[in-house]
Design goal:
The protein contains 13 helices and 2 strands. By secondary structure, the protein is an all-alpha fold. Strands 1-2 form a two-stranded antiparallel ribbon.
């Protein structure tokens, strides 16, 4: 059966123009000068992006009904929850490349721009595969279950963005200067163009996001087969990703069970796809399970916080301290 989309070609174009306008306003007006984004400003922007997504959801409700509105909201919540993993990756990338705080927002801006393009391509391809080969839904479901279990077992593994093949290929063929040159991605010196470390950071962000997209996009297809709903919910979640990073960067490490919740979330949506031929899980129930899983992981992290590693003292520390006191 062919997938029916609520999005006409005109609506796709209008939404894309709307998003590009938001990004132009963001970069050209509100963040024209590179600066360090504080927690208060990041929280304010997080509220703005979430409010825009909810307003869009309200429009879907009035024009296309409650079922499509619930599909959008569930897809948005899934993508928003899974994007927390991106925050961990951003921390690793910025630390690995010693990115100055005032340049981090600019790096995320261009990284998100690239992610919007690649995710749009993935969504169109995913919709085409599901439309032509219905059994692909079971393949997506099995992949999500496998990924969720793997993340649950290996949630303490380290991330090495510099090992990504796309990033390594870029460094091999593109001449690069050694230090940052403000917010420039490319500079011209002695008549030759060079990439700056900031461009390498953007490539690392984009290359890593491709890996995350492979997990998150099938997860939203578990909720709806409408490419326009998948695309818009994904894009709205991505638009708020930069502000979410600056709002959570300082505290995300305190929620030790959050990755467990995200792993269980992937297993749930994967199982939902696998049993779709036998039982269609109602969307309100899906939304409730997803919200309860994320909230439960956060509450568990607050009740049972991670233990701080104890400082191991050398056997002779006490004698050394005593000697120091006698002096």
């Amino acid at each position: 059966m062919e997938i029916q989309s609520i999005g006409s070609p005109l609506l796709w174009v209008a939404f894309t123009v709307f998003v590009l306008g938001l990004l132009a306003l963001d970069l050209g007006v509100f963040h024209r000068e590179a600066h360090e984004l504080g927690v208060r400003e990041a929280l304010a922007w997080t509220v703005v992006w979430i409010s825009l997504a909810l307003l869009f959801n309200l429009g879907v409700y009035f024009w296309y009904g409650s079922e499509r509105a619930l599909e959008f909201l569930t897809g948005y919540v899934i993508e928003k929850a899974l994007s927390v993993d991106n925050v961990f990756v951003f921390l690793v990338i910025f630390s690995a490349f010693s990115v100055p705080p005032k340049l981090q927002h600019r790096a995320l801006f261009w990284g998100v721009i690239g992610a919007l393009v690649t995710r749009g391509i993935f969504i169109v391809l995913g919709a085409a595969l599901l439309n032509r080969f219905h059994w692909m839904a079971y393949l997506f479901g099995a992949f999500l279950v496998f990924t969720g279990i793997r993340l649950l077992v290996q949630r303490g593994g380290e991330i090495h963005p510099e090992r990504n093949p796309l990033f390594r290929l870029f460094r091999r063929f593109i001449p690069t200067v050694d230090d940052y040159r403000g917010s420039h991605l490319i500079v011209v010196e002695a008549g030759k163009r060079y990439a700056t470390p900031l461009l390498l950071v953007v490539v690392a962000i984009e290359a890593t996001d491709i890996v995350f997209a492979i997990d998150s996009i099938p997860a939203i297809f578990a909720v709806t087969k409408d490419p326009f709903i998948v695309y818009t919910s994904n894009i709205f979640a991505m638009l708020g990703l930069r502000a979410l990073y600056f709002a959570l960067a300082g505290v995300v490490g305190k929620f030790q069970y959050l990755k467990v919740g995200l792993s269980l979330l992937l297993v749930f949506v994967g199982a939902k796809m696998l049993i779709a031929g036998i039982y269609a899980v109602p969307i309100p129930l899906s939304l409730g399970v997803i919200a309860a899983t994320i909230a439960g992981s956060i509450v568990a992290s607050l009740i049972w916080p991670a233990k701080k590693p104890e400082i191991q003292r050398k056997p002779d520390d006490s004698s050394d301290d005593a000697a120091e006191m006698r002096r």
